[in-house]
Amino acid sequence: MKSRHISLTKHFTGPVKPEYFQTGEADLPAPKDGEIQVRNEWLSVDPYMRGRMTGITTYIGPFEIGAPMEGGAVGRVVKSSAEGFSEGDWVMSMNGWREGWTGPAKAAQKIDADLLPPQAYLGIAGLTGLTAYVGLKRIIDLKEGETLWMSAGAGAVGSAGIQFAKAMGAKVVASAGGQDKCDFCEEIGADAAVDYKAVPDLKKAVKEAAGGGVEAYFENVGGDHLEAALDVLKPFGRIAACGMIARYNDEAPAPGPRNIIQVVGKSLKIEGYIVSNHFDMQRDFIRDLSAWMGAGKVKSRETVHEGIENAPKAFMGLFSGQNTGKMVVKL
Ligand SMILES: NC(=O)c1ccc[n+]([C@@H]2O[C@H](COP(=O)([O-])OP(=O)(O)OC[C@H]3O[C@@H](n4cnc5c(N)ncnc54)[C@H](OP(=O)(O)O)[C@@H]3O)[C@@H](O)[C@H]2O)c1
Q1: Which atom of ligand 1 is nearest to the CA of 152?
Q2: 85 CA distance to ligand 1 centroid (A)?
Q3: Non-local CB neighbours of 106 within 8 Å, separated by 6+ positions
Q4: What DSSP element (H or E) covers 162?
Q5: Which of 79, 256, 303, 312 is 20 to 30 A from 321 in CA distance terms?
Q6: What confidence score (pLDDT) does residue 325 get?
Q7: In order of start, what are the domains of the chain with their CATH numbers?
């Protein structure tokens, strides 16, 4: 089987450009003992991948230039030399950015495509959903009746988080770029949504939408959003620092937030986290998600690009808000 893949031409800072990506092709070997061959059907593109493109090691190393990049993928087994895996099985792996792969079966996890659409395992039922769940349950410890501000509310983590927070009995104010995205946030349960691109004063708009202030802020954006949140949070407010996408393409560290002193005066708690350090919550997550889905409280939505050649375009779209729900690539 032949497989096309995407690799980087160089490590870079600043805005993501199409010329930083190239398409290659490889002949996949037949699986050896303990291996499977998989044809990927859905790929995930995620903001954290941007960090792996800078060439710097953070909590995860950089992508290797010229080698197929890694990322979430779901696909079907086409050949198996591994016990417990048969032709046709749906599996999830980190062998994304490519049409197929041959490798150890232990790199794959079986998924139940009768229970949920397979691409949902890259979104709400996968690491995206777990990220929102960990942020709300463990980092913020959101309580019934509290008010949460969810930034990037129409995105993958944000839209999962809005629905989970509502299912947990909280009031939710979302922010997102554009009226359509705000409508979507309200459609999935947000009590109010603020179009951060349209309002002259984000802090004032969120405060008004929240009816005074919020107990918790879910940070996906950074920059002006974080600065506004420090003002909107009530005393003893909590921030789950999940991501700061507005900063990922910066060429130099940005100053601010100018009002960081609010952390002291209001006794705010800010805690960052990386989902992979919280896999112990997976069982609780699946239990709660199943219950919420069963009760019709949680739905998933994707923005879909088609074909491996469009994976870079899908990825770049994350930085200009081209997605509502999870950005995925269908092969
Ligand atoms: N800590 C972890 O383990 C972990 C795991 C997964 C994700 N994350 C983080 O969670 C956040 C959301 O990730 P996701 O996968 O769900 O992506 P996403 O929200 O589906 O997509 C990114 C969204 O960010 C918004 N955005 C992009 N540039 C922006 C800017 N300059 N200012 C304001 N908003 C901007 C856009 O929405 P608008 O159109 O509304 O601007 C865009 O749709 C990211 O920061 C990501 O790094 C963290």
Answers
A1: 40
A2: 35
A3: 34
A4: helix 156-167
A5: 256
A6: 98
A7: 2-123+300-330 (3.90.180.10), 127-277 (3.40.50.720)
